[in-house]
Amino acid sequence: MGNFGQLMDGFAVALTAHHLMIMVMGVLLGLVVGVLPGLGAPNGVSLLLPLTFTMDPISAIILLTSMYWGALFGGSTTSILFNIPGEPSSVATTFDGYPLAKQGQAARALTLAFTSAGIGALTGVLVITLLSGWVANFALRFGAAEYFAVYFMAFASFIGMSGGSPFKTLVSMMLGFAAATVGIDTISGEARLTFEFDELIGGISFLIAVIGLFGLGELLLTMEEGLKFEGVKAKLDIRVIARTVAEVPRYWATLIRSALIGCWMGITPGGPTAASFMSYALGRRFSRRGRFFGKGEPEGIVAPETADHSAGSCALLPMLALGIPGSATAAVMMGGLMIWGLSPGPMLFTSQPDFVWGLIASMYMGNIIAVVLVLATVPLFAFILRAPFTVVGPLITVVCVIGAYTVANHMFDVWLALGFGIVGYVFKKLDYPLAPFVLAMVLGDKAEDSFRQAMLTSDGSPAIFFSNGLVATMMGLGLLLLCLPVISALIKGGRGPKDGTAAAPEGRSA
Amino acid sequence: MPKHALTALALCLGLAAPSVALAEWKPNRPVEFVAAAGPGGGTDTFARVVQSALSKNELLTTPIIVSNKAGGSGAETFIYAKTNKSDPYKLYFGTQDAYVLPLANKLSYSLKDLTPIAAMVFDPFILWVNPKTSGIEDVKGFIAKAKEAPGQLKLGGAKAKEADETLMTLIEYSTGVDLTYIPYKSGSEAAIQVAGGHITANVNNPSESVEQWKAGVQKPLCVFENERLADTTVIADGMSWHDVPTCKEAGIAVDSFAQPRTIWAAADLPPEALAYYTDLFTKAAAAPEFKSYQERGAQIPRLLTGDAFKDFIKKHEASYAEIYKRNGWLRAEQ
């Protein structure tokens, strides 16, 4: 395999003391940036970009990607500790990460997340190494209809797999779609649902919505429950980290399933967000402990984290090979490539092999360094939660408000976040799931764009969604996922109601 | 409080040195470059290249921060400018969008809220196809194909009712064909759709498709300029940018449709700051970093500042307004 020879050359480029130092620095910076909500990975990378102008491109991209890994890990940290996801792709980590941390097992939750994320990322890089030549051609087969099919699969798996009432899931998802339409529409160029507020013309920022829905909403709920925060009881034991790392291989089935979903979604344009949501939904369905999801189940952390990071790594491939960035951070890095004089495209692999394979080699090492470094920070972060709620509560509020303001330096966004906080509280009180809302909000406009583009291409004929093997298979799978609960209920119904409790709506469905 | 103190200080200084101050203005704290596009987009790259040209050559020694306000097709940037009247520490980077966006949409800013500083370079537009999947090799073939099945030929571009779709309507008017426009988020995305054979053609700037051309999945049919591009370096198929015919000579009678890369400040920018920045960006346009950016993008080097830029804006806005009117895209006056 030619790829391995080139990878070894890549290691020769990347494995120098200078580059290792850059990786450590990048990861640490990324961690800081990732932990501060509102700043986030894209902004962090963007702030760092000017520093790289005087570096050679390979050192520069190593610095930026290391920072990216660090920020991804940092984003999971806030998801678990404060229920505030720093990136769209770490929303699914809050579903089980935060409950587990609340039960006093923050260290375990963090370690689970970091270890499985590391495994996911390494799987992703391995896929890149093996399939780099093939992926660029495969990605070219994705037209608007195929894009839509990928998003459809993500939505369908969520409706079909949700634990609670499908009706409530649907309502929540529809509200999310409505929120996603705010702003200027890509297809018509018209402003929609902005009510002539200037601040809404760019659409509602995802960060504002999650800061409100998750961070502030949860805070209101905790206050109502009487200011109890179980984190206090946590005993700080360094050995927990080692024990948890040893525990991870036990979830091998979830790991493999999630890594596969992640790689698929990373190569196709679904991206890390769709991957983590889908992996969580499928985990709930197919794991033996699926019905405990949402209550602090370890597999509920492993599933989204593995998928998120394997998709995140795989998504760099379309960026390099096609110049289509898979995430906001990848977009900033692509901007960097162009300033350094490299043009992402199908020829990059042949014209700049040193750069491409040096980058891929650095991804192996960068992720290993990142996992080791973040595991070392676990005691520090777990310690934060030991403070009484009267300290942590106000701290979270301050972080939320500052985070909401920094997104665009608009006071309007702070009010919007408070509004979303109330919405989040009401949703929880009425037992409506928040996850479908967020999923629809993040992917809704993309799904809408690709649906309408497909319709324009086919002159309005829906047959385009079944026009070739690839898209027909994906749509078929999506429909199957959507109907799976109905089908399995029918089968179960035929055999008589043996397991009545599993069908009943569960208390807290994320 | 400190704000008032600063104002007082500024007043004192102003009284002490009434006349020397002019032309002596220089930034003494970080300058923010706001790009009216998301990261990785054309305007973003433009802003960051200028940033690197300025800081590498030490033309500007205070830190430069690039931020992105891409909301509302970039309108967010210019609305932001309106709230920062006369602030010389914030500059706004865009294209013709600064004055074209308010034509179609009801926005709370207008050209009056901006001070034009410079148009640093122009991006030409090119018509692309995938020769393998479409069977089209030249403009003649393109027109024939479009006439064969009216409305069936799909042409992609970035966003709706902006440069790309405007250009498509110009192609339609001048050749009498009927095309269907499909808007994507960016020009590169449209290029990939053409490369993959999902749509037939697209229009965009050379840099957004050059890599696909090298890979043989896209081919330039013609360039929307009055003269051919200057660069004679061979890129692919034994062709250079100079070998791409102008659309006029190839049979699509559309005048030069280049896109300016523009820099703005908010309204009421102090004249000494305007003088400073005009001089600064004139120097930046000559910096090697900017030159190589121009070459990579096969751009047309043409620097406009001061009155020349103002005249250009007036003409360019009027020509867009005319096309918009013909297309029925002008916003309804309230």
Summarize the topology.
The complex is a heterodimer of chains A (510) and B (334).
Chain A: H1 2-14, H2 17-35, H3 40-48, H4 57-82, H5 91-140, H6 144-161, H7 166-180, E1 183-184, E2 191-192, H8 206-224, H9 239-247, H10 252-267, H11 271-286, H12 298-314, H13 316-322, H14 328-339, H15 348-351, H16 353-384, H17 389-408, H18 411-429, H19 435-457, H20 469-495, H21 500-503
Antiparallel strand pairs in A: 1-2
Chain B: H1 2-16, E1 31-35, H2 42-56, E2 64-68, H3 75-82, E3 90-94, H4 97-104, E4 114-123, E5 126-129, H5 131-134, H6 139-148, E6 154-158, H7 163-175, E7 180-184, H8 187-195, E8 201-204, H9 206-214, E9 219-223, E10 234-236, E11 239-240, H10 247-250, E12 259-266, H11 271-285, H12 288-296, E13 304-305, H13 306-327
Parallel strand pairs in B: 1-2, 1-3, 6-7, 6-8
Antiparallel strand pairs in B: 3-12, 4-12, 4-13, 5-8, 5-9, 10-11
Describe the model:
The complex is a heterodimer of chains A (510) and B (334). With 510 residues, chain A is mainly α. Chain A has one domain (2-140, 149-503). Helix content of chain A is 74%, strand content 1%. Chain A has a two-stranded antiparallel sheet with strand order 1-2. In chain A, a hairpin with a 6-residue loop joins strand 1 (183-184) and strand 2. Chain B is an alpha/beta fold. Chain B folds into two domains: 27-123 and 259-327, Bordetella uptake gene, domain 1 (D-Maltodextrin-Binding Protein, domain 2, 3-Layer(aba) Sandwich); 126-250, Periplasmic binding protein-like II (D-Maltodextrin-Binding Protein, domain 2). In chain B, 42% of the residues lie in helices and 19% in strands. The two termini of chain B are 42 Å apart. At the A-B interface, helix 3, strand 1, helix 14 and helix 19 of A face helix 2, strand 2, helix 3, strand 7 and helix 8 of B.
